[in-house]
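Here we describe the complex-level prediction in full. Unlike the single-chain runs in Section 2.1, the four entities below were treated as one system.
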Amino acid sequence: MNLNSLQNKIKEFVDERDWDQFHSLKNLSMALSVESSELLEIFQWAKEDEALDSKKKESLQDELADVFYYLLRIADKSGINLEQALLEKLQKNAAKYPVDKARGNSRKYTEF
Amino acid sequence: MNLNSLQNKIKEFVDERDWDQFHSLKNLSMALSVESSELLEIFQWAKEDEALDSKKKESLQDELADVFYYLLRIADKSGINLEQALLEKLQKNAAKYPVDKARGNSRKYTEF
Amino acid sequence: MNLNSLQNKIKEFVDERDWDQFHSLKNLSMALSVESSELLEIFQWAKEDEALDSKKKESLQDELADVFYYLLRIADKSGINLEQALLEKLQKNAAKYPVDKARGNSRKYTEF
Amino acid sequence: MNLNSLQNKIKEFVDERDWDQFHSLKNLSMALSVESSELLEIFQWAKEDEALDSKKKESLQDELADVFYYLLRIADKSGINLEQALLEKLQKNAAKYPVDKARGNSRKYTEF
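The structure predicted for the assembly as a whole is:
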């Protein structure tokens, strides 16, 4: 399924419940942030190299889905093409982080 | 492009820069949360029904791309199928939020 | 009780449980962010001017305490004086947001 | 200075700028979350045991101040006593995390 079809599936789900009235971009941005934090919580006390056990993997799948849901919803409501946005960002980042400077380096481009 | 191709494009970008060493799930979950918050910041003082001007729309596109980037990266690194995760979640939520109870209602299912 | 005494009370609580080993600044910053998001969640679908009912007020008190706990803990672990940090920041912000320019205006100082 | 005096100092700063109109609890909770995330960003790619260099310490002090500012503001606007909230929470947590069970253990109390 492409991103457009996924967005429409979500829109249908929302419209059946008459939830669009709550879906201002402001509210959706809050929901996205809340869900991202629930994903963060999974790794809160984890060691850096800790393996993902099956229980955490299940939680992770759940939270990834929630973040994706709101991400698609925001893209839909704001008329932004998510795939194109990603591809353009990769191009911008390729310019900001040229391979020779960025290689093996986690610093922000402003600190090169 | 499907999600798999987008994930591979990102993987290539990351590998060229030898950044995979920084991409533990813990670090990626932090990055996802940071980017979601930058998206949240766009609407921080906005009125609920405020229209999206072109400057804010551009920022929003940028931040949507950043969130999507880390979302795809986490899915890739954890071996979770993002599309399937979303579809399963919609099914779960359809059960938790049956149309007759959830209609026009923003309460959490635990408060029905 | 002053901030120092509160920090020491928390330190005692932590030491009794031998939790200091988990309290790297990185982990504490994740915990702070997770708790702030739980506070955010309380207002997720709220109307801007919605009154705080007693149930939400109780949740809010809980989450404020959690955020304060980690804030004091991070200040303690990093040797930063929280009160002084706040007072210095107010001075900086008074310069960035002079009364005549900032009055009744929610824009960031970079946009004046 | 006690917490009350700090809250009043902030209130004065806000009132001089006529910013109270933007300080709904909803907006303040967004601001708190955004600032917590800026603090999180400092440690985004840090190693667990990485020392805090002077540049990062300065950023940390700045972000701690911002989080504290909004925390005090929310407490003030909601009429919640922050010190008391913390002390009550420590008591609750002492019951949830008894020393003998919690010792050296980062699990959530629901997983004991």
